[in-house]
Design brief:
Largest sheet: 6 strands, mixed
CATH superfamily: TolB, C-terminal domain
Number of domains: 1
Radius of gyration: 21 Å
Shape: globular
Mean pLDDT: 88
Distance between the termini: 43 Å
Low-confidence stretches: 1-21
CATH architecture: 6 Propeller
Length: 339
């Protein structure tokens, strides 16, 4: 009997410790970043990335500009500037770099989705327009578009974009704009009778895992993510749960308000997730619209809840892991040691 009671007490203590670990919030404080005289150049930095051993790149969405900052962080130059013509950007939404120093910008001049690929010096190398029939339902946080071409990831030589309209979650494109393959079954939402809502509730972020395969993080509705192998086969699916998500779930409607965009009315679906990235060890970091970030291990188990602090509390709009393991975050263009 004593052994049974002791075992129960130990098990209870372990459960309490594990629950406490799930609820504990770690605070990560900035270890560096761009100096104020450079960070002050940007109107709304929505991407802060670095090529291995090379310059930093800053995607200024509101400024319609991509900057390069030298590795010593002493000066910034404009690589790509505003304009509707090829080689410039207008109404940009998505940005990503490759290990070679090339980068891609997704923009929408005159409402037409466009993808352009640039070399490290800002010279346009390739690009294409997406057909109007493939446009994705918009998911926004304030002025920031998160879905569709904003979800672009540069897996050089190909590109990943979330395209639920195609009947699959992710479409992989060549640099010439040819679909190479699609993968990921749309999840059941209970809103299949309203196609726009159903698609918005499947909008997400496709992410390449440096250790192999892909993640897909759903932005809206009941937050969740999936892991796929390199062939696009589903390995597992996990729901994003925690006290920091409860308020969003409690406020989630069953009918969504609609608004007019161009010539049609579309539902307004607020996201639960603002940004996500995968670190060098295959751990998935998901930043919520609340100022919290969940970290999941390679098996899909939540292992940390973190907040970022610099001059104040930072709610990430983008996350990027450098080749040497530092974490770059916007807004503010800060650096963190992820631990």
């Amino acid at each position: 009997m004593r052994r049974v009671v002791t075992a129960l007490l130990v098990a209870s203590a372990l459960l309490t410790t594990q629950a406490g670990a799930r609820l504990a919030v770690e605070v990560l404080r900035a270890t560096g970043g761009l100096p104020p005289h450079i960070a002050g150049l940007f109107e709304e930095p929505l991407g802060f990335q670095q090529a291995p051993g090379g310059p930093y790149y800053v995607f200024d969405r509101r400024g319609h500009t991509v900057y390069a900052v030298d590795a010593d962080k002493t000066a910034a130059i404009k690589l790509v500037e505003i304009g509707p013509e090829l080689g410039r950007i207008l109404q940009p939404r998505g940005f990503d770099t490759s290990p070679s120093g090339s980068f891609v910008v997704a923009d929408a001049p005159r409402g037409v989705d466009r993808i352009q690929i640039f070399g490290g010096g800002g010279i346009r190398r390739a690009g294409f327009f997406l057909p109007a029939r493939q446009r994705t339902a918009l998911v926004e946080v304030g002025p920031l578009v998160l879905s569709g071409i904003a979800s672009i990831q540069f897996t050089e030589p190909t590109l990943l974009i979330s395209h639920p309209e195609s009947g699959a979650l992710v479409t992989e494109y060549s640099q010439s704009g040819y679909p190479q393959r699609s993968f990921g079954r749309l999840r059941d939402t209970g809103q299949e009778q309203d196609r726009d809502v159903h698609l918005a509730l499947n909008a997400g972020l496709p992410l390449a895992d440096p250790t192999g395969g892909y993640f897909y993080v759903v932005l809206t509705g009941r937050p969740m993510f999936q892991k796929y192998d390199g062939t696009g086969r589903l390995l597992y699916e996990r729901h994003v749960e925690g006290p920091e998500v409860d308020r969003y779930l409690a406020a989630m409607p069953t009918r969504w308000p609609r608004r007019r965009i161009e010539d049609r009315e579309v539902p307004f679906v607020a996201p639960a997730v603002r940004a996500a990235a995968v670190d060098g060890r295959g751990r998935l970091w998901i930043s919520l619209t609340e100022p919290f970030t969940y970290v999941y291990d390679a098996q899909g188990d939540k292992i940390r809840t973190v907040q970022f602090r610099a001059a104040g509390l930072v709610s990430p709009t983008s996350l990027f892991f450098t080749s040497d393991g530092r974490l770059l975050v916007t807004p503010g263009c800060y650096e963190f040691d992820p631990g």
